Amino acid sequence: MMTRSVLGLGASSVAGMGDTGGSASDSSVTQTEAGQHFVKKHGLELINRVTMVKPILDKLLHKNLINYDKYEFVKDTTMSSDQMRRLLYEVIYPGGRELKDELYRILKENEPALMRDLEGSPFSAAPGIRGDR
């Protein structure tokens, strides 16, 4: 079992940092038809289209889902696409389901137009689909 502190994510542990877990209601919303998490499926679009990464980092830090080192690591680059790339590949994906779900919630709040666009795409989340890849 790997603890969240390994990724600088706090004191509680997440079993194997895998991609299982999360509530049934979350998984039905954040899963695509192929069973892949919404955040992972749309990662390239998020990298290219999210322009305000620092407010996302602020919320993750405030919720103790990342530590200050991870916060600084992500914001240390000036281009929002590079920040989002670091956030996804170095923090969110290795952090497992909990972080993907939280990023999804934050994006729904911070980037509603983008999320509506992505959810309306043929690769949108499908209710009732479980699992994560």
TrEMBL record:
<dbReference type="InterPro" id="IPR011029">
    <property type="entry name" value="DEATH-like_dom_sf"/>
</dbReference>
<keyword id="KW-0963">Cytoplasm</keyword>
<dbReference type="InterPro" id="IPR051249">
    <property type="entry name" value="NLRP_Inflammasome"/>
</dbReference>
<dbReference type="Pfam" id="PF00619">
    <property type="entry name" value="CARD"/>
</dbReference>
<dbReference type="InterPro" id="IPR001315">
    <property type="entry name" value="CARD"/>
</dbReference>
<keyword id="KW-0395">Inflammatory response</keyword>
<dbReference type="GO" id="GO:0006954">
    <property type="term" value="P:inflammatory response"/>
</dbReference>
<feature type="domain" description="CARD">
    <location>
        <begin position="31"/>
        <end position="122"/>
    </location>
</feature>
<protein>
    <recommendedName>
        <fullName>CARD domain-containing protein</fullName>
    </recommendedName>
</protein>
<keyword id="KW-0399">Innate immunity</keyword>
<dbReference type="GO" id="GO:0042981">
    <property type="term" value="P:regulation of apoptotic process"/>
</dbReference>
<keyword id="KW-0391">Immunity</keyword>
<dbReference type="GO" id="GO:0045087">
    <property type="term" value="P:innate immune response"/>
</dbReference>
<dbReference type="GO" id="GO:0005829">
    <property type="term" value="C:cytosol"/>
</dbReference>
